[in-house]
Amino acid sequence: MNWIQFFDFLYKLLTRREQDTLRQIRREYEAIVKDLIGDLGNIYNRIGADGKLSYADIVSFREIKRFQQQATAQANRLGKYNREVIQKLLNDSYDLSYGWMSFAVEKAVDITLLNAMPSLPEQILLNRNNLIDKLVLDASLERSRAKITVGIQDAIEKGLINGSDFKQMAADIQRVFEMDYNRALTIAETEVHRVREQASNDSAQNASRQGVEMEKVWSNVGDERVRKTSKANHREVHGQRKKLNEPFELKNNVLAQMPGASGTPYNDIRCRCYARYEVVGIKTIGVADGQQALTRQFNSWKQRKTQ
To answer: What is the pLDDT of residue 215?
Structure first.
């Protein structure tokens, strides 16, 4: 198996894992909407004699208010569920990408790498440095939770003002949840893609520190969805080869160490490109370099011991 075949295999493996999780999220949305629509139907059957509800019904009956509270509570529970499921997917994706990359390098050069799999404390630190958890994922999901909460209240109140029947009210509520699902989908796909690419790069960097010379090649998935706009063209960057620590050069002078890491939304959001890494040689470390490295390690060790 050559490098192209290996990264095709890895891409498919990780994508299957991602799709399984997204289907899991989808089923959760569908179950919640089904229950809410059923409860709404029961309310209409009991107090909507003409098939419509009005503000008078809110005064006379508390069921509408309870329904609003129930829908909001379900939206909040859904936000927590999404956070947990997506975070687990990020962690699993990082482990798989990093581990498979280490495995491929060892197979290619027939050496045993140190730190071939990230330990849990290291992974937590890497995720924090990558801005995945607190600065990106949590903030994005919190904004999504706030939007769906407001959307549910608006859908119900506007429906009452407009005298909507059950069918229209149900459609409006379902549309709010569908929009939230699409936001969750965008967040998950964007962040999972980024952490996968970060993991492969971290693993390649780990190999490089141990004397393995690596290069990287930008690769797209080769279908009609590969982006080609005035701001971002991932078709023309396909096949661009760089040394491990050199950034890829994208359209409009944008630089990125790996796909999904340009810092520009028009390049990164829902990007599906990936970097393909290749071993191109083994570094020869001179005596002087070795002594300097050993001295740095000793000084670091001494500092830890004296703290």
So the answer is: 95
